[in-house]
Description:
With about 130 residues, the chain is of the alpha+beta class. About 30% of the residues lie in helices and about 10% in strands. It contains 4 helices and 3 strands, in the order βββαααα. It has a 3-stranded antiparallel β-sheet with strand order 1-2-3. A hairpin with a 2-residue loop joins strand 1 and strand 2 (about 25-30). Helix 2 (about 70-85) crosses helix 3 (about 90-105). It is globular, with a radius of gyration of 15 Å.
Amino acid sequence: MGAALNSVRMPRGSPADRPAFFTELTAICCRITDGQVSLTHSVSAGLDYALVGPEHAWLRDQGRTEYVSATDQEALEAARTLAHLEGIIPALESAHAVAEAVRRAPASKDQLFVINLSGRGDKDTDIYREN
């Protein structure tokens, strides 16, 4: 997620493997080489955070979840596609999940995708309009 996946400003959900002690809890955190928490960026304010919480970190460590990233542009394009095809304007946070489904769909012809569209896209219309 974010402007660029390889930038210093990695967003929440970016590949991060090292546990960090952050705000009095142990979690997975995007960090720069000296151990400091990295700056983040996402077109979605709800994803502009360097921390993956302890429950999600535990689920990942148990192999029960997989976390992936989408750029701002991928999320915006996925939102436009969903709005055009289904008439649904997703919240920007959910648009990132739609982007991953769009990415996986060509190799998954016989699979069904279920995406939880949390939130409301109407609150993000200014951002959609600007981009």
